[in-house]
Predict the 3D structure of the following.
Amino acid sequence: MTETRKLYQEMGIQKEVLDFCLHIESDLSERFVQIDQRAESNQLKVIKAMQDNRVSDIHFAATTGYGYNDLGRDTLEDVYSSIFHTEAALVRPNLISGTHALHIALSSNLRPGDELLSPVGKPYDTLEEVIGIRESVGSLKEYGVTYRQVDLLADGNFDYPGIAQALNEKTKLVTIQRSKGYATRPTLSVDQIGELIHFIKKIKPEVICMVDNCYGEFVETIEPTDVGADMAVGSLIKNPGGGLAPIGGYIAGKKECIERAAYRLSAPGLGREVGASLGLNTSFYQGLFLAPTVVAGALKGAVFAANIYERLGFLVVPNGKEERHDIIQAITFGTPEGVIAFCEGIQAAAPVDSFVTPEPWDMPGYDAPVIMAAGAFVQGASIELSADAPIKPPYAVYFQGGLTWYHAKLGIITTLQKLTEKGIISAENLLKSL
Ligand SMILES: *Cc1c(COP(=O)(O)O)cnc(C)c1O
């Protein structure tokens, strides 16, 4: 321990900050055991899926050009199907992001005249343009797909009467976002999603239920496709890529939904048969193999931060004790200085670009300056330790990720160090608040 302490000190962490954080950590052992147990279950699920599909080193070979007979690509999709317990999956480097995967899943399964329903309130920002909630060239709206939304009730529960009323003869697809994303509503558990799907299918059995699974993979031991979802969709530079996938997205689900998605991604008539994997298969397999442990590290970081900042009197969502359903942690500092100091700490603790200072800037598409901290191996990978915040009330920062628990821990300790250095939190108060 003395060697470790010495290193923390050499990395600029003062004694009071370290003692406070280690004290908080010592109270979390039960939580961490529960997180490790889930990771173990998910690790076994992933290994079994690879064994059942006879993954072999031939699958790591690269294909080029059309990518006909890309065994590695096809087998990887079978592995995803085994993990998600679905008939099929599309797992591709040319699904270039989560938004793109969601766009393909939606635009391929909806036709002009159909209606899309979100029964869980406003979807993730980037989907507003995909759907056409915000006018955008090429949106579903331009193609004659209408959109309806039922907000969650004030207490976070589903508005069942409202949902029943919104389902109509045009409703073709229901989109359910698992993670709160950057909103203040609670994240949905897989069980809650199952209840919602059950309710919807009782009214309209043929409706397609799609779950935006971003940030949720491997947080629980079951996935939305285990509770009735027809499609689960996500990004490989978040949880299931395990930090190694340099790009990619996935859609796992019913065969006919996945086939429509494949015909949309490539071309009618071509579908899943084409698409060279260009040597990326090894990272996809190995990242998936590591994903359960990586997600566990990120979850420990989120729980650690929630408990530190809750103890210091800040509003944290989820709170320190709550069950987790995604890897995102929100902390409300109430001042721009607090948010900026936090982001500086995350940046300073990164393995890459630790020497740069993040600053708020006017990002296109946002109504306030945004600050982002990330020192990632893969650009924008939010399974790596990263934080961002719009500089506007209530001055909340959202952070997520950490490829290892020890990095997440250093990052969070460094945020507290920065807040202390700037006088936002006093060192004496740290020890008093224990
Ligand atoms: C990240 C995210 C997306 C979009 O993914 P990108 O890869 O950033 O395009 C969509 N929905 C949710 C809930 C997300 O967290």
